[in-house]
Design goal:
63% of the residues lie in helices and 4% in strands.
Length: 1298
């Protein structure tokens, strides 16, 4: 040790075991180095020496006074929190299931699936036959469904996420920092244990597949297929097993997005927890933690989350200006290492794909270093990752590159070595995409960094390479500008991405000075990094404009939407591939046009044959035409496929074109098959329409016969009403709609219009090809196709100016906008001409066509495109761009849709039918006026007969109901039988109130029971019947009365009558014996002169039509009968108002004598009220039910009458004037009553049970007292309670001799 402060520690150090002490004082560096090396070698050779871990050195460090961070309380607290999280993670045994169980929201079936649906919403790659609006709505629905699933999984969050959120929100400062660092360390340590076996298996499988492919190069064997399948499975396992800190924050972002995008389903508790997450992320971003901008696994930006974080960042930093620096490069080219070296940050570094997606980190600038307050660094994942399949890699890399270059003020293009071929391809694609994103104002710049270029004179030696790079990029920009027809705006690479070949190309030596790992860092690398950093700092002062946080958010949002909308450029590796594909796609459009032309000829021939043949030959013509169609299409297909082969084989880029040859061949076959299917369907439609129109031709000549019946029927319904013109029209319209519904035609205008919209959309895509598919899609989504603009609004991108003319105008007018404004009158005039030509073609097409098919929309649009192309060929000063053609075609498509609808309506069977409406209405109106009086009289007569019919039916019902009840129910066989059933019913009801009436007023109780039973019997339904017995009887009688009336009406018609009054008088006379009718008032109201005044033009039209009148009267009287029958539902409630009531008659017959026993109040059982002889009762009751009590104690009397009359007891009553009389002399008082003594105690067991059950109620009712406990009366009641109901019931039945 050279530090004098350590000398005091030497004695302590020397006491430590397994430590080597080297004293460096007064020794030179060479000797010290030699001694250290010797010591290390000696220890390594000593096998007995145990190697120490860093953790085991903590105690040594503490003893010698070195500060150990793990001793800090904040560090310990953070470590403990991280260990808590890891313990919960370790509960999941399967490493591949950790994410699914602990972090479920970011899985493939949720966040990844949502990302794909969102991209599909913008790109419409799998739209099929659906319209843009329908497909967009479908994608939104799928996205909402996924968000709802995420929301349900978030409420409540998983245990791990609940702990993670609470730790971040509850702890601030050092504890939170230590927690995140410890969690990162522990997660990395876990990955080091779980990932190596999977990586080893992955590499081994790749080698096996490569070996298998070399051995069987011709085809893929089953073994190789199994290996590939297993390789895909391991890739999924690797992705599932890899778990880092970024996955936790990704889960927070998905939780936040699901809550924000499905607000109606969120609980208040979850919303309160999640709403503070963006502020937390913003705090961490300010504290130096990276924020995931793009999810590399899903290749998508969680825009709702990122924008929310930026909003919170705005609140923290107020008005802050940002300078955005991004890095782009091939995988393992040292991007993150470069950023870490320059800015002292800690992006993840390692060999391979360590960074996934894009991360941003915020760095505060020193005051005075420039106008920017903060440097926003964007680190991205490596491009051309070998673990991704080629097509997915292309799109992923191109999207990533375009996004980060467009997002940054300057982008570091990191190149490993001298050759920038791969990154150059990506730059070509990105710049082409920028040129296509015309509506976004981008101002990116780039710095090329060549790493591992060791030569000190690299700048001089690689000068030619730099020149070639610039030339290639400039050529690429010229080509892209020509393709997008903006060549007057972009001619060199620097106009798209700011770049100075002299200043913006850097050469870095290797990071390591030698071969890793046991080599030092190259100082030259650090010096180059420092120089590049200084250049970037200078750029922050030079480059304008500067981003505010809101500017950055807005730019990011617009740029990401543009990236999502782009579905062409990102699919290609470089500009050459794109050029070759465009050539092939252009040829495909030409061949498609030729195919369309031939199909149109076939359809025209087919249409002529269908409409010129006899109706009976339609099926034969259709069969022959379809057969010829198939032969012709097969010939056309073979010809087109041969043209494709010739074109691909003779192309100078045949080796590239082979990539899409098979796809183009499938497209040609698809088009041929599609046109064949459409033409076959068109043929079927023609045949159906021909038959429909034949039916319409017949309808034209027989319209009145076709609808006369419905018109008369509706007129009959309305003739009794004084209706105004509006009401008549409304009634007729309803009738007409009903009649129209009975006439079924195949053609459906709504479906046809939808088919037209789809056809125009598909035609636009077919005409402009895949290169402009995204533009067509975007324009169609932006424009309301049904009510869009009627002309083309001139914008900057609608025309392009040749270079020579552009140079002249530039000198004359200066800016591009002023130059283009000079062209506005010419553009508008040409547009008017194009639209006039399009309208002329549409008129010609619609004039000759009878039905719609896809070829019509193709003709309408291809004609206008041809006109614009012809215009461009004759012009020298300016040309119309493809964007203009698309906008013009959308306007023409809207015009065509309107004209096609008019054409379909003109030939539509329903339209033709509608033309017959007004003549039918006139006929209808005349018939209503003619029949109004006749119907009114028939209606009035039937109404006046309603009450007599009802009274007649009721008079017949009373004896019928009484007979029904007595004959069909054995309860009414005798008075004893009736009483027996009443007493059983009282027992079942178990209600003392019902008993109390029976005790005091037996007659009323019986009448109530008979009335209730009669009502129940009348309202009950027989098995299989839907009506009650009362309704059945009433309906039967009603039918007889209605039949009598209709028969009488028909008989009157046979007489020689002159007026309706005569008919009514005779009708009344014929029914005098059956009904009491008074129709004098009706005769006074019947004024037939009114009919003659209604229509004086047609004499004879107003003469009474007795046959029609009688028919109407019969309908009305039957209708009245139906009303009466329906009113019989309420007969039960109306029975009380009848003059005679069936239950009252039945009660009078059954109740008989109503005298009651003077002691127990039991009713006399004689059926005859005026019977001779004494009153008597078979079953007497305990006298307490007659209100008797013992005088001295007021206790109820439980003796029976039959017992008392043979006892020595006495009684007193009102009839004895309060004097006591022996029971044996009761006949002296009640001379007409005979109470036979009875020694049996079982014939009154029914009432004994009653008294035992309701003792308290009886005492309360009569105002008496209960027997005291233990008394004879009390014991008697307890004995009565023991009586069994079944025995009591049987004894009761025997007592009544039943």
């Amino acid at each position: 040790f050279s530090d004098l402060a350590m000398e005091d520690k030497f004695p302590e150090l020397e006491e430590l075991q397994d430590c080597s002490i080297l004293k460096m004082k007064k020794r030179n560096l060479a000797v010290i180095n030699r001694d250290i090396q010797s010591c290390i070698v000696a220890n390594l050779r000593n096998n007995s020496q145990q190697f120490k871990t860093l953790k085991s050195c903590f105690q040594i460090a503490r003893q010698i006074g070195i500060h150990v961070d793990e001793d800090d309380p904040e560090c310990c607290a953070g470590q403990q929190l991280a260990q808590n999280v890891m313990k919960e993670i370790d509960r999941v045994k399967s490493t591949s299931s950790v994410k699914n169980e602990m972090l479920p929201l970011q899985g493939k079936d949720l966040w990844h699936e949502w990302s794909q649906h969102n991209k599909e919403k913008h790109r419409h790659l799998n739209k099929g036959d659906r319209t843009y609006d329908d497909y967009t709505v479908e994608m939104e629905h799928k996205k909402d469904k996924i968000r709802l699933i995420q929301l349900k999984k978030s409420d409540p969050p998983t245990t791990v996420m609940k702990m993670f959120m609470s730790y971040l929100l509850q702890h601030k400062g050092l504890i939170r920092d230590y927690f995140l660092q410890w969690l990162k360390f522990l997660l990395d340590e876990r990955s080091q244990q779980t990932l190596p076996p999977l990586l080893s298996s992955y590499e081994q499988l790749k080698r096996n597949i490569q070996k298998s492919s070399e051995e069987t190069s011709d085809c893929i064997t089953e073994d190789e297929e199994a290996l590939r399948k297993r390789l895909a499975e391991i890739k999924l396992e690797l992705n599932a097993a890899s778990l880092g800190l970024e996955h936790f924050f990704r889960e927070l972002s998905q939780m936040y997005e699901s809550v924000m995008e499905v607000p109606n389903e969120v609980t208040q508790d979850l919303e309160s927890k999640v709403s503070c997450l963006p502020a937390l992320a913003a705090e961490l971003l300010v504290a130096g933690y990276p924020l995931e901008l793009m999810d590399g696994d899903a290749s998508h930006v969680p825009m709702t989350w990122v924008k929310a974080v930026l909003d919170e960042l705005q609140k923290l930093l107020k008005v802050a200006h940002l300078f955005v620096v991004s890095v782009l490069g091939i995988q393992s080219s040292g991007k993150s290492t470069l950023l870490n070296t320059m800015f002292g940050i800690r992006f993840a570094v390692s060999a391979g794909r360590c960074t996934r997606g894009a991360f941003i980190q915020l760095l505060k600038m020193h005051k005075g270093s420039g106008p920017s307050d903060y440097l926003l660094v964007v680190d991205t994942e490596g491009l051309r990752a070998p673990e991704l399949d080629s097509q997915k890699m292309l799109r992923h890399d191109n999207e990533m590159a375009a996004f980060v270059i467009g997002l940054a003020n300057t982008t570091i293009i990191n190149i490993k070595g001298e050759t920038p071929s791969d990154i150059q391809d990506i730059l070509q694609t990105s710049v082409h995409a920028f040129i296509r994103m015309k509506k976004i104002e981008l101002n990116p710049s780039c710095q090329f960094v060549h790493q591992n270029v060791a030569s000190v004179i690299a700048d001089t030696k690689l000068k030619q390479g730099k020149t070639n790079l610039v030339e290639n990029l400039d050529e690429m920009v010229k080509y892209a500008a020509n393709q997008q027809q903006v060549q007057m705006k972009y001619t060199v690479f620097d106009q798209v991405v700011s770049f100075n070949v002299e200043k913006d190309v850097w050469y870095f030596p290797s990071l390591w000075k030698g071969s890793p790992p046991m080599v030092p860092v190259n100082p030259g690398y650090s010096e180059s990094s420092k120089e590049l950093k200084a250049a970037l700092i200078r750029l922050t002062a030079e480059k304008k404009p500067k981003f505010t946080i809101q500017d950055f958010k807005s730019q990011m949002d617009k740029l990401w939407v543009a990236v999502l909308d782009e579905n062409f450029v990102f699919s290609f590796k470089n500009m050459l591939e794109m050029t070759v594909y465009s050539e092939l796609d252009s040829k495909l459009c030409q061949w498609s046009h030729a195919l369309r032309t031939e199909i149109l000829k076939l359809q025209t021939t087919l249409e002529n044959r269908v409409y010129s043949c006899d109706l009976k030959d339609l099926d034969t013509v259709k069969t022959i035409a379809i057969k010829e169609l198939k032969q012709k299409v097969n010939t056309l297909q073979d010809d087109l496929l041969q043209k494709l082969v010739n074109f691909c084989d003779t192309s100078e880029h045949a080796d590239i074109m082979i990539n899409w040859k098979a796809e183009t061949e499938r497209s040609l076959k698809y088009w041929c098959q599609k046109h064949q299917d459409q033409t076959e369907e068109y043929c079927s439609t023609l045949v159906h329409n021909r038959r429909d129109r034949e039916s319409l031709d017949k309808l034209r000549t027989n319209i009145y016969q076709k609808i006369q019946g419905p018109v008369r029927h509706l007129a009959t319904m309305l003739k009794g009403q004084d209706m105004n013109e509006e009401a008549l029209r409304k009634a007729f319209n309803k009738m007409w709609a009903d009649q129209k519904a009975t006439m079924k035609f195949k053609q459906n205008l709504v479906n046809t219009v939808i088919s037209m919209e789809k056809s125009i959309e598909h035609t636009l895509l077919e005409i402009f090809g895949r290169e402009y598919e995204s533009m067509v899609t975007k324009r169609m989504c932006e424009c309301d196709f049904k009510s869009g603009p009627k002309s083309v609004n001139f914008i900057e991108h609608h025309i392009t100016i040749p270079k020579g003319w552009w140079n002249r105008f530039k000198k004359a007018f200066g800016s591009l906008s002023e130059t283009l404004e000079r062209y506005r009158p010419a553009v508008e005039q040409a547009t008017e001409v194009f639209l006039e030509v399009a309208e002329y073609h549409l008129n010609a097409v619609c004039e000759n066509a009878r039905d719609f098919n896809d070829t019509l929309s193709y003709q309408a649009l291809i004609n206008v495109v041809t006109e614009v192309n012809s215009f461009n060929e004759t012009q020298e000063t300016f040309y119309f761009t493809e964007e203009y053609k698309i906008d013009l075609c959308i306007v023409v498509g809207r015009m065509a849709l309107t004209r096609f609808v008019e054409m379909i309506k003109k030939n539509d069977p329903y339209t033709i039918l509608e033309n017959l409406r007004e003549p039918s209405y006139i006929k209808f109106k005349n018939q209503v006026l003619k029949r109004r009086m006749e119907f009114r009289v028939a209606n009035s007569l039937s109404f006046r007969l309603r009450e007599p019919i009802k009274m007649s039916v009721i008079d017949c019902l009373v004896p019928l109901l009484k007979d029904e009840v007595t004959l069909h129910d054995d309860r009414f066989q005798s008075k004893h039988c009736l009483l027996y059933n009443i007493m059983l019913d009282l027992k079942e009801k178990a209600d003392f109130k019902c008993y109390s009436l029976h005790l005091t007023n037996v007659e009323q109780s019986m009448r109530n029971w008979i009335q209730e039973y009669t009502m129940q019997y009348c309202t009950a339904k027989e098995d299989g019947q839907t009506q009650t017995r009362l309704q059945v009887l009433a309906s039967s009688e009603l039918k007889k009365k209605i039949k009598l009336l209709t028969s009488a009406a028909k008989n009157v018609v046979t007489a020689d009558l002159e007026s309706l009054k005569d008919w009514i008088i005779r009708f009344q006379h014929n029914l005098a014996s059956s009904f009491h009718l008074n129709l004098d008032e009706l005769l006074e109201d019947t004024d037939e002169d009114e009919i003659e005044e209604e229509d004086e033009e047609d004499e004879g039209e107003n003469e009474p039509d007795f046959e029609y009148f009688v028919d109407e009267f019969i309908k009305e009287i039957e209708r009245e009968g139906e009303k009466l029958a329906s009113s019989f539902i309420h007969l039960r409630t109306q029975m009380g108002k009848w003059k005679k009531q069936p239950h009252a008659i039945l009660a009078n017959d059954m109740i008989g004598c109503c005298k009651q026993c003077p002691f127990c109040k039991t009713k006399c059982e004689h059926i005859n009220p005026d019977h001779p002889g004494d009153h008597r009762v078979s079953i007497h009751r305990p006298k307490c039910l007659g209100g008797y009590r013992w005088v001295s104690t007021e206790i109820i009397v439980l003796d029976l009458c039959t017992e008392s009359v043979e006892s020595d007891n006495s009684f007193r009553a009102k009839e004895t004037d309060g004097e006591f009389v022996p029971y044996k002399k009761y006949r002296d008082i009640y001379k007409d009553w005979l109470i036979v003594p009875n020694s049996s105690r079982y014939d009154s067991s029914y009432w004994k049970c009653f008294v035992a059950q309701y003792t308290d109620e009886i005492v309360k009712y009569f105002g008496n007292k209960n027997p005291p406990p233990g008394s004879v009366g009390d014991r008697t009641i307890r004995e009565w309670k023991k009586l069994e109901w079944e025995k009591v019931k049987e004894e009761l039945k025997e007592s009544f001799n039943l």
